[in-house]
Amino acid sequence: MKKFIFILLTVLAAVACRKVSLEDRIGQIAKYSTKNPDTYLENLQRHEAEKRIDYLTLTLAKELKAEDIWSLESAGGSSLVAEFPGKSKKQTQFSLLTASLEDPEACAVVLGALKTLKDLKIKPKETIRALFYNPVVDTAGLNGLSTVYMELYESGELVTFELEVSSRDTLPVHTFRIEEKPAFAEKIVEVIPPYLAPLGEFRFERGKYPNKEWPVKASVYRYQLDPADIAKESAVVAAFAYLVN
What we know:
The chain is α/β, with parallel strands linked by helices. The protein has helices spanning 2-16, 22-35, 41-45, 52-63, 104-119, 144-154, 182-196, 230-244; strands at residues 68-74, 77-84, 93-100, 127-133, 158-166, 175-179, 203-206, 219-224. Helix content is 42%, strand content 22%.
């Protein structure tokens, strides 16, 4: 009897430790999005851009349990950063998930993506920093995104990639623009789309690299969301960030 119990426990432990495949992870994310409607957009739309930081701060701290939250001031206004640790022990290396404070749909999608990863207990390899930035350009030609990136760069921290989420870009909806070294961009366009298939059809296009007009000097992936389905778009962003990370 003892031997049987030992074997049973061993089998259960092996099953529990089995690695979850990427396909399974994306399937979990897709299923989650169908059962969890967006709860953020309406609240974000109630406030002007400069007042959204209060709601974002409260949500990131209380509901999403960010490990650290801080704001940075620029002549154009305040920007907000929230940190969610990954598996890597490299404390100076992280990925950025960004949205303009003047784009409530994009902010809602970023919150939804973070909630998806949290609720499904999916921890990416690298630490994710969510950045909600003030897009207003000051007299020095800097906006909130520029200010935050300069602060991080001067601190010796490395941005491995930025995923910029928008509902107001010039791209068609459901489009990713990959601003990356040609060899890596080619691989991303080849490898990522099949994994995202459970979430729909997406267009991938190559952007210029390096993009000297963009303040973040790293690999930049832009996504143009469909504001008509925030919950599904949150799943798309969560899945893409997880796959690339």
